[in-house]
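Two entries, shown back to back:
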Amino acid sequence: MIDFPNRDPLSIALSLWNIGLVSETALMAWADARILDRVQPCPDLLELAASGAQLCLQRDSIESRPFPLTFVEEFALRSHLLDLSDARSTIHFIDWVSRNCGGEDLEHPVVLFVYELDHLYYELDDLPAAIELLRSELPLLLPSCEIVASAFLEQVPDLVLISPTGDANEGQSAPINEIDRHPIDLTPAAIRQLLNHIEIELLPLMLAGFERNPQAMLGGSLRELHNAIGYAVALELPHVEIQRYVNLFHTVALCHLRFGTGDAPFTANIDGNMLDFMPEAHSERMGVDTWADAIHACAIVGDRDGIRLLTTFDEDVFADSDGACSPFDLAYYRFWVDFSNGGQNTAKLLDLAIALAAQEDNLRGKFVNSIRLPELRLLEAIGRGDTRAFHERILNALAAHKQFWSQPSHVLQPSGWVAFPLLAACAIATCWQDFSIAKRTTKAIDVKSDYLPQFMINHRADLLTIVRCQTCNRSSDLTLQAERFWCAWCQNWATIQLDRVKDLEIDRMLTLPQLASQHSTQIPLQPLRIPTGWHVAYNNGLFEIDPLPELFADENPWWIFKEDMLQMYNERFNRLLDLGWYPEGDLVAGSYGLVVYEGDFRGRLLYEFRTRDRLELVAEIERLLSEICQEKL
């Protein structure tokens, strides 16, 4: 038994709280329980129960103080609480060891062990090997650790401890598939100020510079635009605002690389501004790292054409760039080229990349091993269709990402606040149907992390973007004029909103192209008895299905119950019949809206009918078609 001279239970409890193994709430509850057990509780207990440890120590209102624990003592306590079967707890424990083991006595067996652990984790950046070593060797040290831990815990038997991942030890351990973002030592107000600087001051200068000096400004803007994504995610801005920065970065990165290769002239829409570019081959910021950022952005937004373009670059572009191009960089590029063309040789190319990574210098080597290689390992698992390997590797990749970007020299770099390379891999795993991993499961990624915003992972490569007017919620009445949208329905300049809709395609077989469901063939069109003389402009929404929410539990009903369902015109009687569902996609409050106009929508409204009953609607449509032909309407 270890002796603690002059260390009363309250000092031990404060010490455990001080190193994060007891929460403030648990400590106050423990003080309350001890007060009830005593006739005359000591003043420190009363003060602690009333105000909590942090406030008591700040005010210096208690005599008891936490005492410093030795590394071996704290190691024993953390080992006592560690669940080696929990990946998150294990990674957290290894990280704590690596940060705190310096300067300890090498003759102690615990210190010898943790130095070997630190060597694998920090110096070699080999987290899987560190985990394997911990799980095999720590059980041999646990008996001695339990002796040390018991000497503390027997003094405070009713104190509820916290596991190394922040969960009460009496409850379940944290889920294996969660990795939090490393702490960011900036307030939300400070992050907002940085984002405002980009949005208000830099972005207008960028847009002007793209026209005057695209060679310098396109590449020079990428870092700030990448930072804007990190700021927006950290502030938890609405998804549409975050997506705007992602789209902006994606467009500028592609424009920069297209411009720098001296390809043919092109036009790009950058944040609503149509800009013409006359490319000039140059070497500024044309390295593999810039290329990688661009291809990651393409994968995240589902731009397969952009990826096809990027994987046709001549390797001389990178060799001639103003940044260094190592053998590993070229191996990384070749891996992506092979992967995007079906992934026939990804295993061999991964082995080559791993071998070349060992030749990188110390600083670059840490980045390559922590960021680049985990990304390639994920892509290799996707290429093989190995969902299990993908799940295992994404957790290790996130841990390596966190380890790298939480270093003091990197912690405030917003590019590490979001795991762009891993987001790209996750988007591919869930969206690219030519890979079997996406075919077998709709949820190929089963990990939650602040580094991986879920709405960006769940992006579908086959989504269509629908532009709507915010006032009337219509899309068919919008026209682009002088870089602004004019709404013919509202007769005003529109404030637009964007909807991303899955499982739709453009049906170009009609007189006017229309949106149609990719699955619409599974639901037959509603049969109608149509008299001679009627011309069907389009009918891609009136299906033989009732507007019942339970029929659409797993998908969006928008592709059927939309504003533009059926439109017919009778030239002889100068009548227009139009059918839609209003509000669009709302099966709870919405209804069919049927109208008849003289001429077109600018003419006189002759008839209007609303119902939620499909069969009643069919009867009414057939009645109107017949009566119009009889000149009754």
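entry 2 starts here
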Amino acid sequence: MNKSSRTWLVVLLILSLGLNIYLTYLVTTYSNLLEEMTVKGKAAPKPKKVFIISQNEVKSLINKYLDKKLLNLSYDSGGINIDDKRYILVIFHDSSQKSRLLEIVNNEAFDYHIDGDLPLSYNKDHSKLTIKDLINSGIPEFIYQTASGGTGGEQKKIWIINLPKRELAEGEREYSYDTYGSKEIKVNKIAQENNAYKDYITTNLTGLEFVEQDDKRTYKILYQFWYENNGINCSQLKEPCNLKLLWINYPGQEKFFGDWSKSTEAENNNYKAISMFKGGVFLVDKKSNKIALIYLPESEYDFIDEIKIKGNHVNLSRGDSLIVFDINNKNLVKSK
């Protein structure tokens, strides 16, 4: 091999070594970039150790980290362990005390901040904390549901806390007992954009929280059924309406209506029709001892003040207005 050939061989070796060094640099840089993206959450690995903390341990952690003055208050609580961190949610039934969400790391507790206000308890006996993985992410959410009720209606609300994203999905339903008052379910942007959260909220906010079969306000079950199945068209009666009826057990006027006064009533051997003051008209089947709502005025001020039962027809009057309900075919017609 002559001198010129040896020179070219050395040059080729140097170039080959340089290329290898450059390729190694590129691979290392790409690996570091991928790792950085992973850390930032774009391809984050699932935690290895996730579980729901037992209620005994949750109470022990609350006793350890919360102000001693708060320990005698009534509250709902739950905990989630994610690798080396523990998260404790405490919701007090005393409205003057704010809820707390703690992150515990290395035996130190810090307030864990999320985008939104933490849940509140409206009523101790109608509140519930659930921990469940709604979106199958491997990390469960804190889910809190509460309700309050009064003479005018009910309010129910659900909060869903996503810990890794620090997000809060919310939904609420204000249900007015007034005829055709507000009954819609509202959700925030987080819930609107997440089908799993939205479905959970809408499913669990239906129904009436404060109405039970032995409650004096059981008639509101029939109101709700009317709203959802007959609606305002059957109250306005601009055209005949074929009703859908829900028959439920009738425990007697006092247990069913409480101290709500009636406007008028009429009966025959088989049926008894009752019009309530500023309310609807109910029909009692004497044989089965069941009751249904057969008319609900659009306005509470249009309540029926005269009833006559003729055969299978129930005639409902107020002033010059006459409404006829046919028991057999369930048709409701405004004749004048």
